[in-house]
Sequence to fold (89 residues):
Amino acid sequence: MSHNVFQLTVHLYLFSWQDLKDFMRKAGEVCYGGAHGDVGRNKGVVCYERKDDAERAVEELEGRDINGRSITLKYVVREDWDQSGKLNH
Fold:
């Protein structure tokens, strides 16, 4: 099963992966949440098992605040990522 993946752009010092995962649960069940590190500075990734949850996240959470900063969501389907976990452009 493919995972729907969101890349969020947020200021580095204002959230942890736990904050990100908790925030994104507002749209559905999060199966993975990560911030910074391998996903890049000032970025986070959240995966959902269900496409409905991923689409709801874009509709309901785009532009909302997490720890006082507005987030930007980018919808990426897992097959668009290469084996190293990097997004193919």
